Amino acid sequence: MARALVIINCIILAIGNCGGPLIMRLYFNNGGHRIWFSTFLETAGFPIIFIPLFFSYLNRRRNNNNEGENTRFFLIKPRLLMAAILIGILSGFDNYLYAYGIAYLPVSTAALIIASQLAFIAIFSYFMVSHKFTPFTINAVVLLTVGAAVLGMHTETDKPVHETHKQYMVGFLVTVAAAVMYAFLLPLVELAYQKAKQPMSYTLVLEVQMILCFLASLVSLVGMLIAGDFKALPNEAREFKLGEAMFYVVAVLSAIIWQGFFLGAIGLIFCASSLVSGIMISVLLPITEVLAVIFYHEKFQKEKGLSLALSLWGFVSYFYGEIKADKDKRIQEEAQLNSLPRRTRITEC
User: Any stretches that span the bilayer, and where are they (predicted)?
Assistant: First the structure.
């Protein structure tokens, strides 16, 4: 079951991580301009989570009826609920930063910048959830940081023709800020799990995800209200280059696909750790790169190629370190188990 959950969450995360930026860019490429509306779509698909929660409730109720116990629909307790509310609010602002970056950057460039968040996740994980640093982790952090710095060079060659240099640079910096903030949020979710003071289950993870997205959506709705999005959207839909009907299709698909990203990310935190979740997000980088070049014919300059190579080098370094550490840990555990009978025999003598 544990392995199946990991695989399912990886698949869901892959769909959301690769499809989310592409469909968001589709909105902006065809006449969309409302950043807060785009931010809202990142988390607006949270009602979908009610479906698995409902089936989980039915299963628990059936089991509890056999034992004569009452069944609660929600399992979450106040301590974890407060943590989820806080993280949800922070996620709303982080989603805005990301949407702002996608509005002014090619998908391939934004994906490379987001890849650098693995370095920040490693740092935050070290301080927040005591994840140990290894030489391979440090090497990966350095390579990913250098890769992001290389990407910042010669940005004029990557700038879309309809944008100013200022818009591009602001988009670049805002995307970096989004990567740093999300790198902080992933270990924060893991810390919330550890401090929850209640048994964690995948049903509880779904509840946390729903609360996170609900609060993030509220932040986005407030932003939409202030920015005047509700008045502007009907006109924007009529002027959408792909047609008014496609405007709403893109919006619905965006909400569904992005929900897969967030659900997969926090699901992997539950099944493994925040760092593993961050690694999976980063590993999907080449796929997002290729899809952006295929569908949007984005330029792939030498700076992007060098940044991609450094990022992949960083991923391989980190993976090798984790595999080696896991192997050493298993060898150590086996050695300890093999030594137990000997000690018992010595004691008996």
Answer: 35-59, 80-98, 104-129, 136-155, 167-189, 201-226, 246-271, 278-297, 303-321
